């Protein structure tokens, strides 16, 4: 066995550098955190060659005394843990390794002039070797310049992406500080060109702080979140369900003003949207959570990108409730949000405004759903009908392509997807029945036998008790077959193809099975029941049926989307029509 020996300091520094400094974005993050902890009110960042060649961060903070400059570049040295209390960390940086790690991974120069000092001082370091402190001329504050990242660590440097990719990550690292620190002015320069130069503002959700992160169209369509309870406070903006992305990169999350990528926060965000989002899509979000410092541990990750809450369930419950409170009355979509490019030629076109349906008095739509809106008999001609009373979604005027209801509202037109809208109505009714104790059932006059593959039949029968709570009673019927004996009362007269429905349920259960939580499995089955039990595209509705459907949508929670996350209706404002035709 080889003898144990102490590593040379320069080697130890380089190993530590790998934990803190992964890429230029890591350096940018650490240097900005230092500037903010120094009380800076103006921070300027400059990048060259994607940050691989050069990173400069300059601030107007309190500065560093000349005798402290060598210590600032040493490992395990910090000014941010005054009482050495790791349980109540109120600063962004506290490990005392950032500058030392950077000095081990690149060439670094630190120039600093404390407030009120007559001159500035400068120190340089490279490959972990620290130079002498020298006086120089510089304004109050601190300037850190980093060059040739990983120059002496070629094995690390070869794992970096190209300058363009690394530069994009470094730019995002700067942008993530914008909403959490609105009182700080930020300037970003990339390859000699100014990307933005933002003055300080009072509101963290000021458009100037949101646009760099989300873009102008998305930022304008996000809705506010603000909730406070029992020492927890949440502020921010979230996107409407139709404003989603194929990845979670557009979710900006903060805990006590610290940018994080926390699984608990992301899980709460996903749970809050639930079935309002299409599968494998992610909402846009800017969420800033504040709570007592002692209730969160930020010391669980070398780059401080993850946190651990003392009472995670309490935090999660608070987040889900706050987000759901912000979503229901706003989960609607306008034509501009679906296709903003179509309105590019209409200066000043309205973004994100729509008729707001009345809030539901209870979670369930009114009784007699299928009698009122789903007893679709497919009549050949409409009976005489008085002019329907207008609601927020207007009066029905026509059925387009036997699929889309065209309604005239007071200040625009509304297009409703009849299947998607009715699917949400049925789904919410089934959920309400389930919450009340179970979905009411009705026996089929002629039970339906369904032949299935063995694994699918087994998955269906394993979930027999759960399906019973959902109004569907199935039994084994020989090898690889099941028999449907009872069905949800709500769907009994809806002309459902039960064989196709059971095949779809078996596929769903075999694919996900016990990997899902009980609640997720129940809601997935309800979603399938609602889809198969809703009026289909291509079904010609009468004017009375269209009117009944519009009125039910106005009373149904989450009616802006079907339970697959697709929009149920879109609106086009009268003023937009006037602009399109040159009348305004």
Strand content: 15-25%
Helix content: 25-40%
State the shape: elongated
CATH class category name of the largest domain: Alpha Beta
* CATH topology (level 3) name of the largest domain: Ribosomal Protein S8, Chain: A, domain 1
The CATH architecture name of the largest domain reads 2-Layer Sandwich
What is the SS-derived class? alpha+beta
Radius of gyration based on Cα positions: 30 Å
Beta strands, count:
25
- Taken together, the total number of domains comes to 3
Stretches with pLDDT under 50, minimum 5 residues? 84-88, 329-351, 353-381
- The first-to-last residue Cα distance is 86 Å
How would you characterize the largest beta sheet?
9 strands, mixed
Q: Could you name the CATH homologous superfamily of the largest domain?
A: MutL, C-terminal domain, regulatory subdomain
Overall mean pLDDT stands at: 79
Helix run count: 19
Q: What are its keywords?
A:
3 domains, Heat Shock Protein 90, Ribosomal Protein S5, domain 2, 32% helix, alpha+beta, 25 strands, nine-stranded mixed beta sheet, 584 residues, 19 helices, five-stranded mixed beta sheet, Ribosomal Protein S8, Chain: A, domain 1
List the helices and strands and how they pair.
Blueprint: H1 9-20, H2 24-37, E1 42-48, E2 54-59, H3 69-72, H4 98-105, E3 107-113, E4 120-126, E5 129-130, E6 134-136, E7 141-147, H5 154-157, H6 163-175, E8 185-190, E9 193-198, H7 207-214, H8 216-221, E10 223-229, E11 232-238, E12 244-245, E13 251-255, E14 258-260, H9 263-273, E15 282-283, E16 285-290, E17 296-297, E18 308-309, H10 312-326, H11 335-338, H12 369-372, E19 395-400, E20 404-409, E21 412-417, H13 418-435, E22 441-451, H14 454-462, H15 464-469, E23 473-476, E24 481-488, H16 498-512, H17 518-532, H18 543-554, E25 569-573, H19 574-580
Parallel strand pairs: 1-8, 13-16
Antiparallel strand pairs: 1-2, 2-7, 3-4, 3-7, 4-5, 4-6, 8-9, 10-11, 11-16, 12-15, 13-14, 17-18, 19-20, 20-21, 21-25, 22-24, 23-24
């Amino acid at each position: 066995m080889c003898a144990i020996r102490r590593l040379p300091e320069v080697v130890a520094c380089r190993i530590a550098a790998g934990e803190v400094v992964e890429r230029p974005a890591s350096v940018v993050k650490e240097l900005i955190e230092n500037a903010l902890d120094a009380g800076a009110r103006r921070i300027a960042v400059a990048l060259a060659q994607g940050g691989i060649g050069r990173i400069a961060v300059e601030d107007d903070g309190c500065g560093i005394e000349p005798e402290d400059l060598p210590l600032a570049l040493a490992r395990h040295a910090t000014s941010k843990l005054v009482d050495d209390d790791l349980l109540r960390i109120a600063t962004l940086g506290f490990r005392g390794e950032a500058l030392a790690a950077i000095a081990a991974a690149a060439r670094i120069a630190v120039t600093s002039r404390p407030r009120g000092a007559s001159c500035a001082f400068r120190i340089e370091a490279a490959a972990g070797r620290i130079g002498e402190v020298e006086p120089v001329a510089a304004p109050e504050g601190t300037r850190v310049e980093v060059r040739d990242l990983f120059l002496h660590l070629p094995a690390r440097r070869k794992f970096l992406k190209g300058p363009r990719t690394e530069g994009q990550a470094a730019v995002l690292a700067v942008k993530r500080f914008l909403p959490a620190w609105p009182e700080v002015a930020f300037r970003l320069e990339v390859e000699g060109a100014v990307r933005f130069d933002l003055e300080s503002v009072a509101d963290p959700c000021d458009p100037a702080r949101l646009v760099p992160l989300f873009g102008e169209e998305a930022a304008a369509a996000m809705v506010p979140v603000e909730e406070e309870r029992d020492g927890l406070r949440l502020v921010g903006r979230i996107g409407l369900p139709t404003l989603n992305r194929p990845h979670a990169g557009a979710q900006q999350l903060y805990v006590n003003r610290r940018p994080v990528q926390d699984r608990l926060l992301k899980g709460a965000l996903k749970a809050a949207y639930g079935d309002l989002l299409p599968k494998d899509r992610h909402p846009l979000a800017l969420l800033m959570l504040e709570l007592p410092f002692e209730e969160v541990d930020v010391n669980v990750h070398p780059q401080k990108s993850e946190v651990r809450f003392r009472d995670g369930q309490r935090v999660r419950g608070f987040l889900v409730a706050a987000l759901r409170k912000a979503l229901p009355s706003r989960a609607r979509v306008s034509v501009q949000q679906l296709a903003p490019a179509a309105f590019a030629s209409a200066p000043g076109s309205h973004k994100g405004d729509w008729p707001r349906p009345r809030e539901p008095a209870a979670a369930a739509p009114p009784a007699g759903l299928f009698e009122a809106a789903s007893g679709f008999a497919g009549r050949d001609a409409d009976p005489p009908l008085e002019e329907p009373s207008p609601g927020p979604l207007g009066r029905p005027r026509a059925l387009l392509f036997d699929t889309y209801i065209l309604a005239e509202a007071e200040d625009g037109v509304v297009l409703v997807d009849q299947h998607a809208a009715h699917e949400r109505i049925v789904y919410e009714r089934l959920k309400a029945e389930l919450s009340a104790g179970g979905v009411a059932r009705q026996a089929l006059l002629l039970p339906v036998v369904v032949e299935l593959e063995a694994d699918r039949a087994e998955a269906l029968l394993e979930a027999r008790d759960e399906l019973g709570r959902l109004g569907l009673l199935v039994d084994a019927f020989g090898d690889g077959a099941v028999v449907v004996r009872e069905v949800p009362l709500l769907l009994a007269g809806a002309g459902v193809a039960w064989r196709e429905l059971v095949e779809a349920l078996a596929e769903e259960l075999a694919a996900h099975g016990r990997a899902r939580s009980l609640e997720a499995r129940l809601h997935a089955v309800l979603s399938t029941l609602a889809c198969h039990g809703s009026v289909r595209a291509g079904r010609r509705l009468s004017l009375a049926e269209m009117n009944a459907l519009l009125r039910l949508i106005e009373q149904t929670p989450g009616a802006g989307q079907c339970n697959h996350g697709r929009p149920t209706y879109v609106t086009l404002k009268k003023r937009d029509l006037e602009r399109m035709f040159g009348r305004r």
